[in-house]
Task: inverse folding
């Protein structure tokens, strides 16, 4: 059984999720500013997600290159840099953005 399910954070769709840390998840979404990533905190004890920040994707291709039945050409991944101990979130939808998902964007 899923601990947290069907949580609506106020955006359109969450077709892609990247676990940044065990307590932070990044969801691809159609946000107010266009396509982007919604970073959330995971609280297992209260079985809840909290929307922390949004990173819009600059120069997004929006829906220009959709292939049915998919309609979200957006993906993300996390790179951990050993030297600094920081996580970097890479997001691609046409243009590529890189940000520290644990700080405000």
Result:
């Amino acid at each position: 059984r899923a601990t947290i399910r069907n949580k609506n954070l106020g955006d359109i769709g969450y077709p892609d999720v990247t676990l940044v840390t065990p307590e932070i998840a990044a969801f691809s979404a159609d946000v107010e500013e266009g396509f982007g990533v919604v970073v959330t905190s995971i609280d297992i004890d209260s079985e809840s997600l909290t929307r922390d920040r949004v990173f819009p994707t600059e120069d997004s291709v929006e829906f220009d290159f959709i292939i049915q039945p998919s309609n979200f050409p957006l993906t993300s991944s996390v790179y951990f840099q050993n030297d600094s101990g920081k996580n970097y979130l890479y997001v691609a939808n046409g243009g590529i953005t890189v940000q520290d998902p644990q700080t405000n964007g």
